[in-house]
Predict the structure.
Amino acid sequence: MNDIKKKLGKKVKYYRELKGLTQEELAEKIDINCRSLSFIECGTNFVTADTLEKLCNKLSVTPKQLFDFEYYPKNPDDIKKEVCKLIDLNKEKLTDIYNILKGFLC
């Protein structure tokens, strides 16, 4: 069960960051305390059905997306969309992203 909790926690964190939310902001939106969300993201605690529903609503994802631990975009267009979303939500890191891509591709 620990492995599932950790994998789910990573997915929650991934989608939270994709939305550009801090733990505090998401915790407030789903009406749990920040420590509880931190425990979920670290894989220490598991979500209740109520919290799962709230997470899905606020992160605009389905339960399937949160529990699909093997999902990676394979289609080049889907990969490009995901990368663009990440860049749009992390514009303050644009220089870092550019330097990483430049170093990797050049």
Summary: The chain has two domains: 2-67, 76-105. The helical segments are 2-18, 23-29, 34-42, 49-59, 63-67, 76-89, 94-105. The mean pLDDT is 89.
